[in-house]
Amino acid sequence: MPSRRENASDYTVHPANWERDGAALANVRRRVFIEEQGVPESLEWDGEDARAFHIVAENTSGSAIGTGRLLDTGHIGRMAVLPAWRGRGVGRAILAELLTTASQRRYPRCWLNAQASATGFYLPFGFIVDSDEFLDAGMPHYRMIHDPER
Ligand SMILES: CC(C)(COP(=O)(O)OP(=O)(O)OC[C@H]1O[C@@H](n2cnc3c(N)ncnc32)[C@H](O)[C@@H]1OP(=O)(O)O)[C@@H](O)C(=O)NCCC(=O)NCCS
C-alpha cells in the first residue's frame, strides 16, 4: 500500500512528449475532466497540446496517473490526477515541475484558471487570485497569477 505522502518509489514525474505520450496523457484528462467533471470534448481538446510542454506522473508500472501542461504564454493548465492517486503529492510534484520549467525558460509570469474548488491547491505555491469568479465549462473559476515573492 503506497504511503499517502509524496514517495519517490510510488511514482515518477517527468517531462512528456505529446507525440509519444499524448494518448496516455489524454486518457488521464479524459477520465478526470470529461468523464468525472463533465467537460465537453470540444473544450478539452483545444488544439494547444502539440505545442505545449507537458509533465506526466507515472506509477511504477509506467502507466500515466497524472499530468499538467505549460504554454509559452506562462499559462499552466490541464492539471489532473487520477482519483486513486490524489492526496499523495502527485499534483504538487507536477506543478513544481511546471513552475521550474517556466522559470528556466524565463517566462515573465505564470497564470492559470483555477476551478473554484481547487484554488487552495495553488495558494501555497504563491499563486494569488486575480479575478472575480467566472464560468468555464460550466464550472466556477478564478484566474490566479504566480507571484514568486509570496
Ligand atoms: C487538483 C489536483 C490536481 C490535486 O492533485 P493531488 O495529487 O490530489 O494534490 P496533492 O496530493 O499534491 O496535494 C498537495 C496539497 O494540496 C492540497 N490540495 C489538494 N487538492 C486540493 C484542493 N482541491 N483544494 C485545496 N487543497 C488541495 C492537499 O491537501 C495537499 O496539502 P498538504 O500539503 O497540506 O497535505 C487533483 O485533485 C485533481 O486532479 N482534481 C480534479 C481535476 C481538477 O480539479 N484539476 C484542477 C483544475 S484547476
What would your notes on this structure say?
About 30% of the residues lie in helices and about 30% in strands. It has about 150 residues and is an alpha+beta fold. Strands 1-2-3-4 form a 4-stranded antiparallel beta sheet, sandwiched between helices. Strands 5, 6, 7 and 8 form a 4-stranded antiparallel beta sheet that branches. Strand 3 and strand 4 form a beta hairpin. The model is unreliable at about 1-5 (pLDDT under 50).
Please write the CATH class name of the domain at 11-106.
Answer: Alpha Beta
The level of helicity is: 25-40%
Which structural class matches the secondary elements? Answer: alpha+beta
Shape: globular
- Report the strand count: 8
Largest sheet, in brief, is: 4 strands, antiparallel
- The mean pLDDT is 93
Q: What Rg, in angstroms, do the CA atoms define? A: 15 Å
SSE layout and pairings?
Layout: E1 11-16, H1 18-36, H2 41-44, E2 53-59, E3 64-70, E4 76-81, H3 90-104, E5 111-115, H4 119-122, E6 127-129, E7 134-136, E8 139-146
What is shown here, in short?
The chain is α+β, with helices and mostly antiparallel strands and 150 residues long.
